[in-house]
Design a protein that fits this description.
Elements: E1 2-7, E2 17-21, E3 35-40, E4 43-53, E5 66-67, H1 76-88, H2 93-98, H3 132-136
Antiparallel strand pairs: 1-2, 1-4, 3-4, 3-5
């Protein structure tokens, strides 16, 4: 299976899709609208799968490295909305998709998630002197 990937670069000349081969371990998964990690030049970068395609005859195709998301990030409506936004503005397609996403899903983001930590005390602490607020807590 082969897919067209829109890579996350800010270079306007890269405002197009690039074709990659999907390894057999990912062939049973629907990848359209998900982020993937792909080799691009000398580095590995993230991109969005826009559609499936047939193998081009005129050049060698590289394999994708990894599928980043389990769930679809950009559904069909968002994919179409991004294309309309690109056609009506002077923006690149990738910048149209990036404004639709939360910061944690953008390339280069650390994806920091805040967690709350709760502690539970086990045992008998009746011998500890507590004020009213401490007892309430």
């Amino acid at each position: 299976m082969y897919i067209n990937v829109l890579v996350e670069t800010k270079v306007k000349s890269n405002d197009m899709t690039f074709t990659y081969h999907v390894p057999s371990i990912y062939e049973d998964i629907s990848l359209i609208g998900k982020r993937v990690l792909v080799p691009f030049g000398t580095r590995n970068i993230e991109g969005f799968v826009l559609n499936e395609t047939s193998k081009p005859d005129n050049y060698d195709i590289k394999d994708i490295i990894d599928v980043i998301d389990e769930d679809v990030v950009l559904n069909n409506e968002l994919l179409e909305l991004g294309k309309v936004m690109r056609d009506n503005t002077l923006s690149t397609l990738i910048s149209c998709y990036q404004v639709m996403l939360p910061k944690a899903l953008k390339a280069g983001s650390s994806g920091n998630i805040k967690y709350d930590t709760y502690y539970k005390l086990d045992g008998d602490y009746s011998n500890i002197k507590l004020n009213d607020k401490q007892r309430e807590i």
